[in-house]
Design a protein that fits this description.
Layout (H helix, E strand, L loop, with lengths): L1 E3 L8 E4 L2 E11 L7 E8 L5 E7 L3 E4 L3 E11 L2 E6 L5 E5 H4 L11 E7 L2 E6 L3 E9 L12 E6 L4 E5 L7 E5 L5 E4 L3
Antiparallel strand pairs: 1-6, 2-3, 2-6, 3-4, 4-5, 7-8, 7-10, 8-9, 10-11, 12-13, 12-15, 13-14, 15-16
Length: about 190
């Protein structure tokens, strides 16, 4: 099925030159001048070779639909992550390289979508957002209330993000799993 390049997300699988590639990262770039482009970081399904590809956002790309099932994350051990199929309770072990950079956002019991091609995991798609607790950040400076003022923070999973000045240690925040950036304070 043909779709526009700007509709591709991490976890999708496309066909390029007769080979299947799993999208690890998709970034839409809007330059000040010129045509917007979509930058794709992909991994070959058959050989595991990583490539980068750029498309104009209006270009069509052949998306391949393969077996897609819901799994629950159980645990990570070394370079392997173990998931359980929520329908038949079978376990599946997936190398962390298939998950890509999103592996750092996996949480115990998290439900993910795993795409399988001939019984082999080719892509893992996490929820769009995850709630994490801030474990380290600089103290709030009085009078520093400008809307654009951000400070670095370390989250419970070790990821470093920039957060608004009013966020302190212990705050629960919503983080995008695609971009790895702060979205908002958690409502919980």
């Amino acid at each position: 099925m043909k779709i526009n390049a700007n509709q591709l997300r991490a976890g999708h699988v496309i066909e390029l030159n007769g080979k299947l590639y799993a999208v690890l990262k998709a970034q839409n770039i809007q330059p000040g001048k010129g045509t917007p482009v979509t930058q794709l970081d992909m991994r070959g399904v058959a050989d595991g070779v990583k490539i980068n590809q750029r498309y104009r956002t209006t270009e069509s790309v052949e998306r391949v639909f393969i077996d897609e099932r819901e799994f629950q994350f159980l645990f990570a051990e070394g370079e392997q992550c173990t998931f359980m199929d929520v329908e038949n309770y079978e376990q599946l072990t997936v190398p962390t390289e298939v998950i890509g950079e999103a592996v750092k956002f996996l949480q115990e019991s998290m439900h993910v979508t795993i795409r399988l091609y001939e019984g082999k995991a080719v892509a893992v798609e996490l929820p769009q957002t995850v709630v994490l607790t801030v474990t380290e950040t600089e103290p709030t400076v009085r009078g520093q209330t400008a809307a654009s003022s951000y400070k670095p923070a370390i989250l419970e999973n070790g990821v470093r993000v920039m957060v608004p000045a009013h966020i302190g240690v212990g705050a629960k925040i919503v983080v995008s799993t695609d971009e790895g950036n702060y979205l908002e304070r958690s409502k919980d």
